[in-house]
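Appendix B, example 12.
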Amino acid sequence: MKVILTSYHEKLGDIGDEVEVKKGYANNYLIPKGLAVTATDGNRNQMKLVKQAAIKVEARNIKEAEELVKKFEGLQITFVVKTGEEGKLYGSITNKDIAEKIFAEKNIEIDRKKIDLDEHIKELGEYDIVLKLYKEVKTSIKVIVEPDEESRSLIEAYKAEKEKAAKLEEEEKKKAEKAAEDMAKTGEEKVKKGKARAVDEKSQNDMENDRKSTDVKSKSTDEEK
């Protein structure tokens, strides 16, 4: 089904564009939401006028967005927060929080919907956040999330405890490996001694057998005489 867009659509096109979409999508979403009208001759003529006016508005919006890009250049904002011992935030930082922070610190007002945050920030760190200012005009800012003094002490204590536990675990592992190695060596020595003893016993038995054989031969010789 052909429709004419009455406003910008990121995937379909700009205002006044005539596009082909599925009938259900047009009738159940685009047209009821006021995003498009059916592609009739009357609507085409009307949308031509609307598009001409929109071109002027478009130029102004792009210019304003590009001016904002300059203001946001190199911008970074910092949130000092409370966390648990593992650095997890109590709560989260949303695009609304970021918008309010930008306004409070830089006196720049931005719609939170233009802050492209896939999911709320729940951990410490540095984040590059994209700002979709107008259509293809985008920029980014850096958001830094760091712990307050109390949380920092808590995190450092937890980290030190974990490192200590890991060190002890490594020492225990080395002890166990050393014990296993010693047992293996002891076992090898026992096997070697056992083999040596077996060889000695065989040698003694062979000597005894040779002696007995010699005695038998000697006795036979005496009897023959």
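The mean pLDDT is 85. Strands lie at 2-5, 18-20, 36-38, 76-81, 88-93, 115-116, 121-123, 125-134, 137-147.
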